[in-house]
Design goal:
It contains twelve helices and nine strands. A nine-stranded mixed beta sheet has the order 2-1-3-4-5-6-7-8-9, with helices on both faces. The chain starts with 6 loop residues before the first helix and ends with a strand. With about 290 residues, it is of the alpha/beta class. It has one domain (about 10-285): UDP-N-acetylmuramoyl-L-alanine:D-glutamate ligase (3-Layer(aba) Sandwich). Bound molecules: adenosine-5'-triphosphate, 2-(4-methyl-thiazol-5-yl)-ethanol and magnesium ion. Magnesium ion binds near residues 116, 142, 160, 216 and 217. Magnesium ion binds near residues 142, 160 and 216.
Length: about 290
């Protein structure tokens, strides 16, 4: 019996399912973020605190750098999402991170992990693996960090900087997503996002962003803010945040003389993003 749908109708249905209207989705996330201004608790490294807070404010979220272990029981239940970054880790901070992550999970709040330099030492790797056990909604790292975490092995990294392209970490990212049930994102020339099955690439950004410290930390915080907007669509939120931050970098680099002015111009560009710019610049597509 002949199918009542024409081939083109079928194709367009399949197309819709596999490849949503990404630029429109990115804009919807950013607009909703600006309307709702979610409160994001950040337990992040000393290097990144300023740029992370300014990234969140420019995007429309409300950051709070609250990290005392004695404070999280009162504070974490109030937030819309929690962001944890192990960049300048010590025992004291780790205790607060674990307590906050457990409270977030218990209260049904999304939380996002940035496993900075995960493969650099046994202490750091164990800390990250313990945090993964506390069920992050999203894990975002560079290629070397995601490979180290996925293999649970020390090595293959240059501190906070990656020794791998993001695409080198594709299988590691899928495997980590499957074992942790988190959405896993790998930043780089192409930003990869996977839930362990589907994989998409976000193609925004400029190479000079690697020369501004803590841009990775900032985009992970932005992911937390996007996920706060719609925790039931963490995959789409993650891709949208990566694309948005990349677009801000693309606009910012045109006004920059080097990394220091890129830092300023990226934040200004993020603040000024409008619908036309997002729809014209967002580049997200499936990756196999
Ligand atoms: N070659 C590139 N081309 C375009 N964008 C890039 C490139 N490399 C990195 N980026 C962008 O720069 C940002 C930071 O990514 P990166 O992989 O450098 O993170 P990171 O190593 O964790 O950084 P940090 O630890 O300093 O915060 C992301 O938004 C990413 O998309
Ligand atoms: C350079 C550096 N070292 C620890 S955290 C950090 C910021 C970038 O991740
Ligand atoms: Mg990093």
């Amino acid at each position: 019996m002949e199918n009542s749908n024409t081939p083109s109708e079928c194709e367009s249905e399949i197309h819709q399912e596999i490849q949503p209207q990404w630029p429109q989705k990115v804009w919807e996330f950013l607009s909703k973020l600006r309307q709702t201004s979610p409160l994001i608790q950040c337990i992040t490294n000393f290097v990144s605190m300023d740029i992370v807070a300014n990234t969140l404010l420019s995007a429309g979220a409300s950051p709070a750098m609250v990290h005392a272990a004695d404070e999280v029981a009162d504070f974490t239940p109030q937030v819309h999402a929690l962001y944890i970054n192990v960049g300048t880790l010590s025992d004291h901070w780790l205790a607060a991170m674990k307590r906050a992550a457990a409270i977030a999970a218990h209260n049904g709040k999304p939380w996002v992990l940035d496993p900075v330099a995960a493969g650099s030492s046994g202490f750091r790797l164990r800390a990250c693996l313990d945090l993964v056990q506390l069920r992050p909604t999203v894990i975002r790292g560079n290629g070397s960090e995601i490979i180290a975490l996925s293999r649970a092995a020390v090595g293959g990294t240059k501190g906070a900087d990656s020794m791998h392209d993001s695409v080198d970490a594709l299988e590691a990212a899928k495997s980590l997503a499957q074992s942790s049930s988190a959405i896993v994102a790998v930043s780089g020339a192409v930003d990869i996002v996977t839930d362990g099955q589907q994989v998409i690439g976000a193609y925004n950004g400029v190479p000079m962003m690697q020369k501004v410290t803590a841009t990775g930390c900032s985009v992970t915080a932005l992911i937390a803010a996007f996920v706060a907007v719609d925790p039931t669509h963490a995959f789409e939120a993650t891709a949208s945040a990566l694309s948005t931050f990349g677009i801000a970098g693309e606009l910012g680099v045109h006004m920059a003389k080097g990394p220091a002015s890129l830092r300023v111009n990226l934040i200004d560009s993020l603040y000024g993003l409008d619908e036309e710019t997002i729809l014209g610049h967002a580049k997200i597509s499936p990756l196999s």
